[in-house]
Amino acid sequence: MGAVYQARDLQLNRLMALKVIRPDLAKDPEIVNRFKQELILARQVTHKNVIRIYDLAEFDGLKFITMDFIDGRDLKTFSERTGSSNLGGLRRTSSKFAAAWKQRTLKP
User: Fold this and answer.
1) CA dihedral angle for residue 11, residue 13, residue 16, residue 22, rounded to 10 degrees
2) Which residue among 22, 40, 41, 108 is least enclosed by CB atoms within 10 Å?
3) CA distances from 57 to 22, 30, 45, 52, 71 (A)
4) Which of the following CATH numbers is that of domain 1-71: 3.40.50.300, 3.30.70.20, 3.30.70.360, 3.30.200.20?
5) Which helix (DSSP H) or strand (DSSP E) does residue 20 occupy?
6) Which of 45, 41, 75, 72 is nearest to 56 (CA)?
7) Long-range contacts for 52-61 (Cβ within 8 Å, ≥24 apart)?
8) What percent of the chain has pLDDT over 90?
9) Are 39 and 56 in contact (CB under 8 A)?
10) 3-state DSSP call for residue 62?
């Protein structure tokens, strides 16, 4: 759907992440609405393992979400270093998380 970039908030002097919608997708109101829903839903969850999302904004025609920046490896790097066989647990965990999210039964 887009790309995530590291950025610095100059007013608060802190690192943050920008999740940018691809320009071709930003023209589709349904995609933009899904992007907004991601923000709305994520703001309803407060947990140490869930990233904090701040805002949906636009600059020079690019729509993006601002969120906490978490320094670490991405999933692609993780899978290359550990081998795809180790991703089974991650897939199971993410499936359970997705099911719980839909039912709003997330518990610490």
Assistant:
1) 50
2) 108
3) 14, 17, 20, 15, 23
4) 3.30.200.20
5) strand 14-21
6) 41
7) 54/16, 61/23, 61/26
8) 11
9) yes
10) strand
- Nearest Cα to 39, choosing from 61, 15, 59, 21? 21
Report CA dihedral (86, 90, 92, 98) to the nearest 10 degrees. Answer: -160
Are 41 and 50 spatial neighbours (Cβ–Cβ below 8 Å)?
no
> pLDDT tens digits for 26-46?
888 888 888 788 788 878 877
The least confident of 17-21, 61-65, 82-86 is 82-86
Give me Rg for the CA atoms of the chain: 16
CA distance 6 to 70: 9
Every domain of the chain and the residues it spans: 1-71, 73-108
60 by DSSP, 3-state: which? coil
